[in-house]
Amino acid sequence: MVKIGNIQLPSFPLLLAPMEDVSDPPFRAVCKDKGADLMYTEFISSEGLIRDAIKSRQKLDIFDYERPVGIQIFGGDEESLSLAARIVEVTSPDLLDINFGCPVKKVALKGAGAGVLKDIDLMVRLTAAVVRSTRLPVTVKTRLGWDDNSLNIEEVAERLQDVGIQALAIHGRTRSQMYKGSADWTLIGRVKNNPRIKIPIFGNGDIDSPEKALEYRNRYGVDGIMIGRAAIGYPWIFEEIRHFLETGDHLPPPSMEDRIGVCRKHLVRSVEWKGPVVGINEMRRHYANYLKGLPNIKEYRNKLVTLKTSDEINEVLSEIGRVYAGFEFSKQPIELINYHEKCPV
């Protein structure tokens, strides 16, 4: 078992990464159904929470069926992060995570997210302030460093452990890389195998198949893996990896019926939580992966991203189900969406 505070996870947990504008309750619900062991909210601005910003407050919504679930916050000021931690604690998540990894300009260049990687002393002070402010287990999500000249994750891991974090998730890229190139897990493995490190270390970056999950577990020795982009529109990635790790066999790809059913459930929850306009608009980013692999699907996909009511969308989904009934999907790695303006850390 892997423990974070009093949270008990499986021996090799599969975590859903916090992704801005993606990891909302509707998305988390379908990922939980398909085997995610630990999930996080979208990252929440500490300043927004303190100002009582509506969007920030809404991101605090968590539900019992999601547990264990963590709330992730970001900021560059000790007092603001401390106050935000106290606000978060009232909502009773299972843990509180600090985002030191988001690379986008609007966050990093304002001294938050991955921007804190340029000042490790500040990162330590911010983390210590949060740990002192809450009784929740505190964890951190970060990157290897700001750029190739500041690959300081080994120092970061030791110092953050020393001030009280109880787990660390590491994305195998620098801030300068954004989401380009391949994630380098070498330093993640060195952190995990450092005899000074006693907390769980989770690896993140480019896990898009059961084979890669097994390879990286064995090669780098991490305590678990965090999956982000590969789960968008394809929550089956969790149960496929779990089954492969436990048996060495592949699950069959989800059937057409299963894909349509999960997509419908996601749509229903999205509309229930966000209302019909926002809920429908924000589902549009998921259709491509739900339907990936179907031949000549572009016309239907274009329809789905323009329709404005659930009834119209369900009608098109039903038509897709009829047209492609019995279609056998091949096993192919999930296409990782390349984010530049979003932040699936």
Name the features.
345 residues, alpha/beta, TIM Barrel, Non-ribosomal Peptide Synthetase Peptidyl Carrier Protein, Chain A, 2 domains, eight-stranded parallel beta barrel, two-stranded antiparallel ribbon, 15 helices, 41% helix, 13% strand, disordered C terminus
Q: Any idea what the shape is?
A: globular
Judged by helices, strands and strand pairing, the structural class is alpha/beta
Please tell me the overall pLDDT: 88
Here the CATH topology of the largest domain equals TIM Barrel
The stretches of 5 or more residues where confidence is low (pLDDT under 50) are 339-345
The biggest beta sheet is recorded as:
8 strands, parallel, barrel
Tell how many strands the DSSP assignment holds.
Answer: 11
Q: What is the CATH architecture descriptor of the largest domain?
A: Alpha-Beta Barrel
What's the arrangement of strands in the largest beta sheet?
A: 3-4-6-7-8-9-10-11
Number of domains: 2
Radius of gyration: 20 Å
Strand percentage? 5-15%
Describe this structure in words.
- The protein is of the alpha/beta class and 345 residues long.
- It has 2 domains: 2-247, Alpha-Beta Barrel (TIM Barrel), CATH 3.20.20; 256-323, Orthogonal Bundle (Non-ribosomal Peptide Synthetase Peptidyl Carrier Protein, Chain A), CATH 1.10.1200.
- Helices cover 41% and strands 13% of the residues.
- Strands 3-4-6-7-8-9-10-11 form an 8-stranded parallel β-barrel, surrounded by 6 helices.
- The longest helix is centred in the last third of the chain and has 19 residues, at 256-274.
- The chain is globular.
- 48% of the residues are buried.
- Residues 339-345 have low confidence and may be disordered.
